[in-house]
Design goal:
Its main location: cytoplasm. One of its GO terms (biological process) is DNA repair. It is found in: Cytoplasm. Keywords: Cytoplasm, Endonuclease, Hydrolase, Nuclease. The structure is a single chain. The radius of gyration is 22 Å and the shape is globular. Helix 2 runs parallel beside helix 4. It is built from seven helices and 14 strands. By secondary structure, the protein is α+β, with helices and mostly antiparallel strands. The strands form two sheets. A twelve-stranded mixed beta sheet has the order 7-8-9-6-5-1-2-3-4-10-11-14, with helices on both faces. The protein has two domains: 237 residues, archaeoglobus fulgidus dsm 4304 superfamily (archaeoglobus fulgidus dsm 4304 fold), CATH 3.30.2170.10; 81 residues, no CATH class.
């Protein structure tokens, strides 16, 4: 991608300064004031991954997990083309738009997202990874040919501009396909920095302000910001982190604390760098990050990293589903995608992509 024009950088600087005024460095939610974060049920993670050698085409990922058990409920990925150039310190202008679209899609398929809602429905032609599936009573949906397992169910919630209509909603609610658990998003983890940034407005702040969600920035590598550098002193502070949960502040030359280095795991001495994104205090962000760590990287971000862009955002280890409304017939159909078999009119077939096809007519 061509180098950005100076005029564009100046424009971004002004916009960053304007948005920076909207960042809230305080706990705005009741669960944030609880010692064990009582009331927090869902946490999310976002990231963009790139195909090697391609800095324009990327895959935008969003995951939602239960808290505190860290069980994946919802995963979505979409191939996107980035139109904005990469400029150090202005990552939000390049990566925030597709990530905001992923959040908007979650709101569309989850009508009661704010406050906490219930099941997730899928739009026609849209792909998402559905985990935590429930098994429906045998015979509740007629299948074409034999099938070795009970039918699985999905309950679309409401019509949308490109989604299912009331008739199909009613039909699929009665006969449907896959039930997906609640996906209320209480806080968003961003693979990157928040206030720990050259102008105190990293990607986590950018996403937080524009989405108005509590956001936490978690970076794996140290960004050199105003006197905070990887020096012998910094390394000695890391060595002093004796146990999981220990941390030390990242203070600039002026004394302002922009983040903390957190030893997040007993098994790794390498810290992660936590900073405020939006609507959360630094101490709360650090405590929450630690509780979300099964390994070094907090689970919402680690689950995002597990998605494989090289297979067009499809990981064969999970079941994917695509809801298809057959407009040219009277039938409604659900296609479940996976690695092994096709249950079709003639029985069970081996297929590398298609897992199952059911007719709801």
């Amino acid at each position: 991608m061509a180098a950005p024009e100076a005029e564009l950088v100046l424009k971004w600087e002004r916009e960053q300064a304007r948005l920076r005024e909207s960042v809230k460095e305080e706990d705005t939610e009741d669960w944030q004031r609880s010692p064990d974060f009582s009331g927090l049920k869902r946490v999310g993670g976002v990231d963009l991954s790139f195909i090697k050698g391609d800095d324009i085409n990327a895959c935008a990922h969003l995951v939602v997990l239960t808290y505190p058990h860290m069980k994946v409920l919802y995963e979505d990925c979409k191939m996107v083309t980035l139109n904005a150039p990469y400029v150090a310190g202005f990552l939000g202008f390049r990566e925030a738009p597709p990530l905001l679209q992923a959040l908007e899609k979650l709101k569309n398929v989850q009508p009661n997202l704010m406050p906490q809602g219930s099941s997730i429905g899928l739009e026609i032609g849209e792909w998402c990874r559905c985990c935590s599936l429930s098994i429906a009573p045998p015979g509740s949906v007629r299948s074409r040919g034999s099938r070795p397992h009970p039918t699985r169910h999905i309950y679309p919630h409401r019509p949308s501009q490109t989604g299912v209509y009331p008739r199909e909603c009613s039909l699929l609610t009665l006969r449907g396909a896959v039930t997906v658990a609640m996906a209320y998003l209480g806080v968003l983890f961003v693979d990157g920095n928040g206030l720990f940034h050259y102008r105190e407005f990293g990607l986590a702040c950018h996403l937080g302000v524009l989405s108005d969600l509590p956001c936490v920035g978690v970076a794996k590598n140290l960004l050199h910001v105003e006197g905070v550098v990887r020096s012998e002193e910094h390394q000695s502070q890391i060595n002093a982190l004796q146990k999981s949960g220990d941390s030390f502040p990242l203070a600039t030359t002026s004394g302002r604390v922009l983040g903390k280095a957190l030893r997040s795991s007993h098994s790794s001495i390498k810290p992660v760098y936590v900073s405020v994104g939006h609507r959360i205090t630094l101490d709360t962000a650090v405590r929450l990050t630690h509780t979300c760590c099964l390994y070094r990287v907090p689970e919402p971000i680690r689950q995002v990293h597990k998605l494989n862009v090289s297979t067009a955002c499809i990981n064969q280890n999970y079941i994917k589903c695509r809801l298809i409304i057959c407009s040219h017939t009277t039938s409604d159909a659900l296609t479940l995608w996976g690695p092994r078999v096709f249950w079709g009119p003639g029985g069970v077939f081996t297929c590398p992509e298609i897992y199952a096809f059911f007719s709801c007519s």
